């Protein structure tokens, strides 16, 4: 199977413009024969870089409120059809998509945000929407904790594919939840940085004896839009911290079931990277270690997973 890694920058915090750019990458991937294309964490409409640059922990800050409101207005509401055009494109081209979005949902009030990894099947149907279980550090000032509803895998050709957001990939039990469903192609999405991907990608591949596809976003400080609320405040924060030109410099890569690189981390430029993966190599490496198969001991240890979507109200009519 051919997989495309779309390492790209969003039109930062602009949902419609970013979605147009994403659609173009999907078309390019399909034209190169890819059956799956993967995008980075929170790419639609972008990662929240501003809290650490703008005193994000200050309570009741007018600047933080303005930036958050802008973020909400550009978030994705699945129930309102915000991904319908992308789903239609997937069906038109017969290509599967994994994409990181910022999700808002009406049944949780509509204003709390989740870092959600969405899987769109080749027929255009959204197969899962996995809300990041625990936002990392400053992300907690912007994102809400998710739930286990999206801890699901999907058949794609000969493969069984699943995915996690960013530092969730360091969490042993969510990984085990996917392994236990037969995952043999693992998707890990990141905001961008080789320091995130260069160790964990090969480790998960070696642990799971699966293909691991890590896809990162990009963000250059020159890409901060002038019309963004408090854009100057964000730029001042970059100067104050002697920030590098890159807020996120990529790092997308692929490791095989033996833990060796198929594609080493790609840094410093946008690109669409295509790789071919084989199910035979999974079988070869699982001859001596299969984490959810012959090397497991369910009579000794088992994992219980709650996949109910969290809601605050249960109605009985």
Describe the structure.
Helix 1 (15-31) packs parallel to helix 3 (84-93). The chain is α/β, with parallel strands linked by helices. It is globular and about 55 Å long. It is built from 7 helices and 13 strands. Strands 6, 7, 8, 9, 10, 11 and 12 form a 7-stranded mixed β-sheet that branches. Strands 5-4-3-2-1-13 form a 6-stranded mixed β-sheet. Helix 5 links the parallel strand 8 (185-190) and strand 9 (211-216). The mean pLDDT is 96.
Oligomer class: single chain
Helix count, DSSP H or I runs of 4 or more residues: 7
Calculate Rg over CA atoms.
19 Å
Distance between the termini: 48 Å
The assigned structural class equals alpha/beta
Compute the number of strand runs.
13
Task: Please render the helix and strand layout as text.
Layout: E1 2-7, H1 15-31, E2 36-38, H2 62-73, H3 84-93, E3 96-104, E4 113-120, E5 126-131, E6 154-156, E7 159-165, H4 172-179, E8 185-190, H5 194-208, E9 211-216, E10 218-220, H6 231-240, E11 246-255, E12 261-267, E13 271-276, H7 279-285
């Amino acid at each position: 199977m051919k997989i495309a890694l779309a390492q790209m920058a969003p039109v930062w915090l602009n949902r419609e413009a970013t979605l147009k750019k994403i659609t173009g990458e999907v078309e390019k991937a399909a034209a190169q024969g890819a059956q799956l294309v993967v995008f980075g964490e929170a790419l639609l409409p972008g990662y929240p870089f501003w809290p650490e640059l703008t005193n994000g922990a200050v309570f009741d800050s007018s600047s933080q409120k303005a930036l958050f409101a802008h973020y909400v207005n550009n978030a994705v509401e699945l129930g309102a059809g915000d991904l319908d055009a992308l789903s239609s494109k997937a069906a038109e081209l017969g290509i599967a998509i994994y994409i990181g979005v910022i999700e808002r949902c009406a049944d949780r009030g509509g204003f709390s945000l989740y870092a959600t990894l969405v899987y769109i099947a080749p027929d255009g149907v959204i197969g899962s929407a996995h809300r990041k279980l625990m936002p990392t550090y400053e992300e907690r000032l912007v994102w809400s904790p998710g739930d286990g509803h999206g801890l699901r895998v999907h058949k794609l050709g000969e493969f069984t594919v699943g995915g996690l957001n960013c530092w969730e990939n360091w969490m042993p039990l969510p990984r085990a939840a996917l392994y236990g469903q037969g995952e043999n192609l693992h998707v890990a999405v990141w905001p961008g940085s080789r320091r995130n991907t260069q160790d964990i990608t090969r480790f998960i591949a070696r642990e799971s004896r699966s293909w691991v596809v890590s896809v990162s976003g990009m963000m250059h400080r020159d890409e901060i839009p002038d019309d963004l609320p408090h854009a100057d405040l964000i730029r001042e924060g970059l100067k104050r911290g002697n920030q590098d030109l890159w807020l996120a410099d990529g790092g997308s890569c692929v490791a095989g079931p033996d833990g060796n690189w198929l594609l080493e981390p790609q840094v410093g430029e946008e690109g669409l990277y295509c790789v071919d993966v084989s199910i035979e190599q999974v079988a070869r490496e699982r001859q001596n270690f299969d984490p959810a198969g012959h090397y497991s001991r369910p009579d000794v240890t088992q994992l219980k997973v709650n996949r109910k979507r969290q809601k605050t109200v249960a109605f009985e009519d």
